[in-house]
Amino acid sequence: MKLDLHTFVQRKLDWDDIIPPDLRNIWESNFDIMQEVNEIKFNRAVVPEDAISLDISTIDTGDASKVLACVAIYARFKRKDGSNSCQLVFSRLKLVPDGMSQPRAELYAAVINAHTGEVIRKSFGERHKHAIKLTDSQIVFHWINNQDKPLKQWVRNRIIEIRRLTSPDDWKYVQSKDMIADLGTRKGVKLKDVNSESNWINGYNWMKLDELEFPTMCLEQIKLSNEEMQSI
Q: What structural domains and CATH numbers belong to the chain?
């Protein structure tokens, strides 16, 4: 719907203008979805009944297409059986500025991830013990961990902002198939994809494992192509 509203802005339509005929079907569908949202339910309590303590860790995910950036943050509690709970606690979606390259859009998402994670950390206070930050962009992952190579000013300023709020050690790389925030970066998502039983609310199965079992990669495990290295 953000993209559909953005189309109105691009066409310089005002609030009182009639919806153009070529967009009418799109907005009839959007209005139907607005009504159906009333049927969506989710569990507001993130602490499971069998939690061994109120100590919280979070998985902070961020992803971007060339038009949308999405951040989704999941709270985890250690359970009495040794497993971990996982539930969405906060998400946000922003339009990517027009004309931004894919690597820069992914960096834009990483900045939003850093800021949103800081809000969550402060909200949970002393109960928040640890956050793991995830990106599925190898280029952004190298930018965040870069220590020697000079960066272009636009990139450098945003890396400084990310490092102001997080440590490079907090960040890990995951493949796109394991990036839950990808769900919010494209059209075509249905209400069933975000209901109380969905991966969007409960995370992927691996997000309930111990961190050593996560399908994440460290810097030494990632090799960039020559073209990708030129963009760093």
A: 2-39 (no CATH), 56-230 (3.30.420)
The tens digit of pLDDT for each residue in 78-100 reads 999 999 999 999 999 999 998 99
pTM: 0.90
Q: How many C-beta neighbours within 10 Å does residue 101 have?
A: 11
User: Which amino acid type is present at position 6?
Assistant: H
The residues facing 90 across adjacent strands are 73
pLDDT one-digit tens code per residue, 4-28 = 988 998 899 888 999 999 999 999 9
On the CB side of 90, CA atoms within 13 Å amount to 15
- Per DSSP, the residues of 190-225 read -GGGGSTTSHHHH--GGGGS-GGGSSEE-GGG----
Instruction: Please name which of 209, 128, 133 lies closest in space to residue 166, comparing C-alpha atoms.
Output: 133
